[in-house]
Amino acid sequence: MRRFAEAEDLSDVVRQALGAGCRIVGVDRLRGGSKKGVYRVRLDGSGTESVIVYRWSDGENFWPGAAEDDATDPFAPASGLVPFLAARRRLDEVGARVPHLLLADDTRQRYAADVALVEDVSGGTLEALFETDPGRAEGVLDDLARTLDLMQRHRAPHYGRVDVLELGGVALGSSCEQLVFDRALRNLGEAAGRDPRIGAVHGRLDDRLRELAALVAPRAEYGLIHGELGPDHVLVSAEGRAVLIDIEGLMHFDAEWEHVFLRLRFHERYAALARPGLDPRRLDLYLLAMRLSLVAGPLRLLDGDFPDREFMQGIAEHNLREALALLP
Question: Is the pLDDT reported for residue 249 higher than 60?
Fold first, then answer.
């Protein structure tokens, strides 16, 4: 049985960040986290109404086998204070907006997990704003486009997660496209074993992946990408800025991988984020690979006790149909 954090668990780190006079009046675990706990902590006596606490612990991570993940693999689930802080530093460097950091603690002296306290950004998610105030959301979308430009212009000669590169490490594999291709084959095999509809066309999907991969030319420079940048991972500041969250997987990689995901998540609004110069052959390969990832990944997560099972099953089902539609 998992035990999530309550007020008494968080009181010491909150007082450490905001002062001894600060009192917790409520704690809400926010929906959607699969690798860390995200808590809104409501306060009295601190001068601010609430803060967000990130809590990285085994009890908050719903991914089976996550303890065995290899940080040099850019696609391994990224979790922990180290990648979080490295990503913050890099995004600050390029001028992207992230929640202000109030405290980071990995000593385990006050609390039995790595924790970070950040500002509670006031405007909610961009996803919600599209519904409640479309006009204001368009301005935030423009700011997100500017942020993506800043990230894409921040080039590096090597690909990989920023925390790995920051320490002088080398990412797994020989190229972005080879990593994507190899991972797509693994996801295809896993999905085929879990769903007979994929199993029935396993050979055709394998052939299609190989055909698309053969068309991709080498590349030797890489921009900065978030990796899972949907409108639910963009908060809205009081000034109308796009604020990036869930940043632990930040990496230097092909921009096409980011833009395939953006296109899937922003739908008709993606036009505001589209940029010239993307390689159409990479986009074709990465789109099919992304669809297969979004089948195998959610099904794998459902092997455990992830609570929002209907939502995750819906992601897998939608992307399964879309992957089949990509067959010639």
Answer: yes
